[in-house]
Amino acid sequence: MMSCNWTSLTFSHDNLTDCPDLYHLHDDDDDQVLIDLRRRLEMTRFVVQRVLAPTVISAGILANILTVIVLTRPSMTRSSTNVYLSALAVYDAAYLALAFTMTWIHYDTVKAMAWYTRYQLPVGRPLIDSASNTAVWLIVSFTVERFINVRFPIKGKVTRY
Question: Which residues contact 134 (CB under 8 A, 6 or more apart)?
């Protein structure tokens, strides 16, 4: 296997001798390096696509559901902030659920199904983009509303004791 500090190399003719493996690679060594890289790539893809993505998406959906439950209690709905945050949690959960359906492309059995190919591009992508864009515009409107409330505070009722 090649052992060379690639980060310290600058590729000029003089310092190529600092990494002697560059001159003495055989086809068998190249093949073994490529096989090892492919194995690592497959393992990384498996972990990211089939373990991490579903785990993070599930945790996000659960957290957003809990957020909606807490923020929609009668005592919490008095504030416009809570209404914005509840709507944001709903659209974030929708985005995550739709994104989860798009990760199914990494499963050969689902990818081969006709309904999935009919769903993925014409339906799935636009729905994901809509949920994402709606969440962004909710954040923008929430920020503008907060700016107005801070910059031009509304004079509330003053109670004197």
Answer: 91
- How confident is the model over 34-66, as pLDDT tens digits? 999 999 999 999 999 989 999 999 999 999 999
pTM of the model: 0.71
pLDDT in tens, 87-128: 999 999 999 999 999 988 888 888 888 998 889 889 999 999
Round to whole Å and give the CA distance between 47 and 39. Answer: 12
DSSP code per residue over 112-125: T-HHHHHHIIIIIH
In this structure, are residues 67 and 102 in contact, taking their beta carbons and an 8 Å threshold?
no
Which amino acid, residue 17? T
Look at residue 145 and give its three-state secondary structure. Answer: helix
Round to whole Å and give the CA distance between 150 and 142: 12
Using CA atoms, how far apart are residues 26 and 81, in angstroms rounded to an integer?
A: 65
**Residue ranges covered by each domain of the chain:** 18-151
Token pair recorded at residue 112:
């081969």
CA distances for 44 relative to 40, 51, 118, angstroms = 6, 10, 29
Q: Which phi and psi angles does 19 have, rounded to 5°?
A: -120, 85
